[in-house]
Write a structure and sequence with these properties.
There is one protein chain. This protein has a five-stranded antiparallel β-sheet with strand order 1-2-3-4-5. The protein has 114 residues and is α+β, with helices and mostly antiparallel strands. A hairpin with a 3-residue loop joins β3 (58-69) and β4. The N and C termini lie far apart (33 Å). It has one domain. The radius of gyration is 15 Å and the shape is globular. It has helices at 5-20, 24-27, 97-106; strands spanning 30-36, 40-48, 58-69, 73-79, 85-87.
Length: 114
Amino acid sequence: MPLPAEDVRLAEQFVSDLNSGMPPHAARQLRYRLDTERNALTVVESRAVDPEQPGGPWFDVFVARLRFTRSRGWELYWPDRDSNFHVYEAVEPTQDVTLLLAEIHNDPTGIFFG
């Protein structure tokens, strides 16, 4: 089952906004991307291993996962320190992906961005 194209576009815009809102000095050390899977979107933070070494290696940290099913819609998950995902229980599953993107952005519990 393909993901709703408009929802994927909204999530891509969310990640693009994260990157474009970053100061230039931080953008050399940190960037975000969206990984698309069959039934999920994962927001990933990439950091330079050595910010003083341009073009050097980067490492990834999961920020959040949005999983989609036709029956429940979108459900939000948070990653633990071992990169295992758990249901984020502060919001209910929804057909409106923007509600979950707003929850990630606002991060009221500090679980997504720290």
